[in-house]
Each structure stands twice: as structure tokens, then as C-alpha cells.
Backbone:
DNA sequence: CCCTTTCTTGAATGGTGGTCAAGAAGTACA
DNA sequence: TGTACTTCTTGACCACCATTCAAGAAAGGG
């Protein structure tokens, strides 16, 4: 029984599909990118994708997994306590804005597909961990600190929705989070 | 030239379609509700809907227009200065939660359809007006007050995304907005 | 040489939002 | 009363989508 047709070919093509999908998803969005277009970009037949991924949603999850993975790793790499929460959030926003269309899809598609919902949950978990680190000293009770974390994530997500030249997401988050932290410190 | 087949029939059927659409959209979401299903619920042929609405998006806008219209009216009816910003936001959240799936669709679909985008803009405008009322005395400069308004709306939108039994949107908004206001008062 | 596993494909399926031209049903005017 | 014009309604149809299926090609092990 042969291990593989060409040893690494499988993983390589998978990666290639994810590469193309990320590019197309970013440019035109998830919904607007058809499997046919994706296949054409990769250079294979439309149905060939289904050998590598069970569904279009799974392709999206693979793309998001890579994007978010890299993002979280980068953020965690910076010593967030040293640079401060605001700087961390600023970087997070810049990163998220880059993949805004993917974030939109994730948000919306989560209420329709189980795979995506699953990913979103894990994404939230990882983000909470990341924030917990930056908030270690910012609060007293466990419950309060958790609420603070969720609130910050909500602010980030909302700010991205209302992001505009006049009111950039950074300013919105800055204002809201400053208020939140101040409140915590005084309590 | 006859004014109408049966005088009011046209508007009546239009309303009937909106009624059914609202019900179906709420139950199963926008995307999951097919035009065929909507037509069946109303009791007409699928394509008959296209005589009343140019597209499915327009049906959604009609539904949203009514929901949001009623919502904003109710909120504006209460003397928001008397009851206070927090109470207003609390009511706003309760209302929005009811039509959560529609809000989701609005958010996502806005980046795909011009009609929806248009509605979303007008919705934001109206909300800003509503908030401006409640914030009249909360801030000094025009620019600051506007940022405050956008931030509050962002918090509301984000809180709705992260709404859960453990961390209800009300608590998230409460925390974030309290911080925001405090910051403004001190500046 | 065959056999199994790994890929790849052309053709087809069911379902979608949306279109079109023809018909039914009222109303106005002759 | 008849007929023309507008308002609605419909069945048949289209292009497109994600997805499936069965059959074929490529490559290595025996």
C-alpha cells in the first residue's frame, strides 16, 4: 500500500487551496467566491476541492484558523504587560481590519453552520486567554475580570463595525476601554 | 384608468407579505427563508412577490424598516432624559435582542447589497439622533459627543454579539457605558 | 503484471433568486 | 353592454450555486 502519491503532494495542494481561498475571500468575500472560481484559481476541477475539504465552510475555517492563529501568536509574542493593553488592542485592531471581510463572514456564518460556530467558540476562548494575560492586574474578582474581558472584546468587535475615517475603530476602542479600566481601578 | 383593482388590496397584500416575512425571518433567518416558502406562507405564487418587491433584499428592508421604526419610536417616546441613558439602552437592547437574527442579517448583508447598505446608513443616522438627545448634557465638544455616541452604538452592537446567559448584553453595555460617561464628565 | 490507494474529473442533482410572456380580473369609458 | 387599459397572478424557465457520484488516471507495493 503506497503511503502517498508523491509523499508531500497532498499537504502541499491543501495549502495551495487555502492560499488561493484566503486571497479570494479577502478580495470578494466568502459568499461571492464560488467553489468554481476557487478551483480555477488553484488550477483544478471544481469538485477536486471536495477531496481536500468536506465543504466550503471547512475551507473558510481553514483560512480563518491560519489567519487567527498567526494573529494571536504575534500578539502573544509581544510582552503585552510591557507594551500595555492599549497598544495590544491597537495592534489587534489593525490585524482584524486587514481581514475584516473574513471577520464579517465568521460572525454571520456562525449562526448557520456548525463548523463555523465551533471555530468561533474556540476563537473567543483563545482571545479571552490572551486578554486575561493583559488584565491580570487590572481587576479584583474573577467574575469582574471576566466581564471586563468580554466587554473589551465586544467593544473591539463593535468598533470594527462602526469603523470609519471620521471615527476610526482605534479611537472608539480607546475611549471605551479607558473608561472600563478606570471603573475597575476605582471599584 | 382604474386606480386600483380593489382600492386598498395592494397595500394590504404588501403588508401581509411583510407580516409573513417578518415571522419567517425571525424564526429561521433571512438566508434560510426562501422566496418559495415566503410565497407559500402568504398563499401566492413565488414570483408574485416580485410584483410587490423588486428583490428579496427589498423585502428584508421593508421588514427592518417597520421593526426599527417601531423600536425607535417607542424609545423616543419615553423621556430619555428623565429615565436616563442606562434605562434607554436597556430597553434598546431588549428590543434588539428580539430581532437579533434580523440585525445579524443587516450587518452582514450590508456589505453585499446596496439597498441594505442604504438602510443601514439611515438606521445609524436615526440612532445617532436618538442618542444625541440622551447625551445633550453628557459632554462638552461636538466632536467628543459624536465619538461618544458612536462608541455607545458600537458597544451595543458588540454586546449583542457576545450576549450570553453568563454575560448578558445589558451587563456588558452597562459596564462599558458607565466608564465612557465617567471619562467624559472628568475631561 | 495486477492490485490497492491516492487523486482527478465530467456529468449530473437539487435548490436558489430572479425573469418573462401570457393570462385573469377588475375598472373606466364608449 | 362591450371593450380597452391597468392591476395582479401565474407556469415555465434561466443561470448559478454547492455538492455528489461513478468512473477514470497515476503511482507505488507485491
Residues:
Amino acid at each position: 500500500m503506497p503511503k502517498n502519491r508523491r509523499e508531500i503532494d497532498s499537504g502541499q495542494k491543501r495549502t495551495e487551496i487555502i492560499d488561493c481561498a484566503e486571497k479570494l475571500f479577502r478580495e470578494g468575500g466568502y459568499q461571492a467566491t464560488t467553489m468554481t472560481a476557487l478551483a480555477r484559481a488553484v488550477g483544478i476541477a471544481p469538485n477536486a476541492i471536495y477531496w481536500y475539504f468536506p465543504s466550503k465552510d471547512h475551507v473558510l475555517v481553514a483560512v480563518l484558523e491560519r489567519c487567527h492563529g498567526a494573529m494571536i501568536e504575534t500578539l502573544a509574542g509581544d510582552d503585552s504587560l510591557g507594551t500595555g493593553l492599549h497598544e495590544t488592542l491597537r495592534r489587534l485592531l489593525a490585524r482584524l481590519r486587514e481581514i475584516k471581510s473574513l471577520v464579517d463572514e465568521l460572525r454571520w456564518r456562525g449562526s448557520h453552520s456548525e463548523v463555523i460556530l465551533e471555530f468561533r467558540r474556540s476563537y473567543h476562548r483563545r482571545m479571552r486567554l490572551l486578554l486575561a494575560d493583559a488584565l491580570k492586574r487590572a481587576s479584583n474578582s474573577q467574575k469582574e475580570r471576566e466581564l471586563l474581558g468580554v466587554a473589551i472584546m465586544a467593544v473591539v468587535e463593535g468598533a470594527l463595525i462602526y469603523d470609519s475615517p471620521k471615527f476610526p475603530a482605534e479611537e472608539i476602542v480607546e475611549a471605551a476601554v479607558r473608561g472600563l479600566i478606570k471603573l475597575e481601578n476605582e471599584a
Residues 56-77 of chain A form the longest helix (22 residues). Chain A touches chain B at residues 29, 31-32, 101, 104-105, 107-108, 111-112, 124, 146-148, 150-151, 153-159, 161-162, 167, 171-172, 175-176, 178-183 (CB under 8 Å). Residues 1-6, 34-36, 46-47, 50, 55-56 of chain A lie near DNA strand D (CB under 10 Å from a C1'). The two ends of chain A are 67 Å apart (CA to CA).
